[in-house]
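Sample A.
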Amino acid sequence: MGYNTDGLTFNTLRRGGLARLPEFKNNKGETAHSKADGSDWSLNDWAVAVTGELGEACNVLKKVRRGDLTLDEARPLLTQEFADVVIYMDLLASQAGIALGQAVMDTFNNKSIKVGSRVRLAADDWHYAEEK
């Protein structure tokens, strides 16, 4: 477990993200949310935040594709943008009442069954399902 994160979990991400919302400031130094839990933003607002960050990552990849940057040069930018996507995605899921970690495990495992793979995810690691 860990994946170079020292064990970061979806639960930790969720708790930290929600705790930070009332302290989050925009670029003008103003509080970004009028409600501490982020419910002042609609699901559409949160979805726009997710896709905005994904768009920023795509813009970096476009620059790699056309030769403005090498992948090695772009990696720090991509790292930040991919992380922003995950952070905003979890906040969107939270506002929708979805436990993203459980949803990812369930969806991954259901897709594994559908495609005939024995690989399954559990909260602590991945494993191979027993053959029938």
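Sample B, a different protein:
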Amino acid sequence: MSCEQFLDSEFSICGNMQHVVCKDGGKEYRLENDLGEFVCRVKIDEGFIRHGEKCDWLIVICERKIFIFVELKGSDVEKACSQILSTIHYFEQSIRNLEGVVYVRIVAQRVPNIPGTNERKLSKELKKLNKDKILRFRWYQEKE
């Protein structure tokens, strides 16, 4: 997967955008592109991928080969982890070929204190994909 495949897609917006905003169902994730890098924001759910379980958005920071999978969820974090995992598997071979770095962003109203099965699977997959790169698994919670 590279940015070229998203340039002509009706489901993506690519460019040197300063603010990359993903919205769905009243939820929002915002990425500040302070370095002015070339970025593609891709609508995955009901867009680039039509069938199966998938996350809402993919943001690709093209030059640095950074892939950010975004799920905007109400409260079912386990489902969000499963959706992101399925989407990562869809793009996995391309990510490996490019030696890209994968990040996950889940925006939820509530985050469980105890990790569920899908969260543990997702964490394991991120470690496998990102190899020696040191990354933290972080939660972002909306303020009510």
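Observation for Sample B: Helices lie at 4-7, 77-98, 117-130.
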